Amino acid sequence: MRKKVLITGGTGVIGKRLTELLLEKNYDVAYLSRKKKAIKFVQVFEWDVAKGYIEENALENTDFLIHLAGAGVADERWTEERKKIIVSSRTDSILLIAQKIKEKNIKPTAFISASGSSYYGEDSGDVRNTEDSPAGNDFLSHVTIEWEKAADAVAKLGIRTVKLRTGIVLSMDGGAIPKMASPARLGFGAPLGSGKQWVPWIHIDDICRMYIHAMENDSWNDTYNAVANPPVTNKELTKQICIALGKPQWLPNVPAFALRMAFGEMANVVLGSSYLVNKRIAEETGFQYKYPDLPEALKEVFSK
């Protein structure tokens, strides 16, 4: 019997590719969406988090829940209102799901939630952060702490819960890579700030395969650094993007002060350093990366 996977944020970068891989493996895929719309091979259920509404039968017969929904951290300048939206879009949606699961006495096999590499802080320098490292105390770490705390509400219902702390996802369908590739294609690729800040990364296919692996294997539980190993510096990432595109990198670094003037506090997203070690994945899961090497990963991404 085909198993049902219900996804929030299914139309995002990860959600789209994950859907393709799940369909290839003969899963039934359904989305929770703010608008009812037709998507080929996907059943779409409507929900409204603010009103506490999830369409009837959306959660019925669900074997796995995957939570990807959340307002983009780097989409808009961080006003106080925007900060509230960034947090609530991740947490309120999970809490609503937990509430409805409890009310309907439904028990999916597993709940897999996105989380962020920023758990350890916007800038943790050269510290090698494993899953046991302490949380940071800035805005982005606060976002991730609250995100994971909301996911724990599902775990408390006796449902196996996995949280994947993810860095930059290498994909041309959205996220950081298209933004970095655009100036590089024109010959204007340049490191940001000092260029020495560590950037955790993972190829789009590997993060999607990781979600499926976490679904299908009962040994996965709690938090994982869902990144390739090792991370790279911003300077090296920029260099490898230019090489993959066959473009020179000759411009000087973009000064940190210029980025802060342009983006305010949000500049911390690209100026902060975050060195993540995928300790639990490497030692406990048996997961095999398809693209563990950055040059090869970028080559595959840009080939599309």
UniProtKB/TrEMBL annotation:
<protein>
    <submittedName>
        <fullName>TIGR01777 family protein</fullName>
    </submittedName>
</protein>
<comment type="similarity">
    <text>Belongs to the NAD(P)-dependent epimerase/dehydratase family. SDR39U1 subfamily.</text>
</comment>
<feature type="domain" description="NAD-dependent epimerase/dehydratase">
    <location>
        <begin position="5"/>
        <end position="225"/>
    </location>
</feature>
<dbReference type="InterPro" id="IPR010099">
    <property type="entry name" value="SDR39U1"/>
</dbReference>
<dbReference type="InterPro" id="IPR001509">
    <property type="entry name" value="Epimerase_deHydtase"/>
</dbReference>
<feature type="domain" description="DUF1731">
    <location>
        <begin position="254"/>
        <end position="300"/>
    </location>
</feature>
<dbReference type="InterPro" id="IPR013549">
    <property type="entry name" value="DUF1731"/>
</dbReference>
<dbReference type="Pfam" id="PF01370">
    <property type="entry name" value="Epimerase"/>
</dbReference>
<dbReference type="Pfam" id="PF08338">
    <property type="entry name" value="DUF1731"/>
</dbReference>
<dbReference type="InterPro" id="IPR036291">
    <property type="entry name" value="NAD(P)-bd_dom_sf"/>
</dbReference>
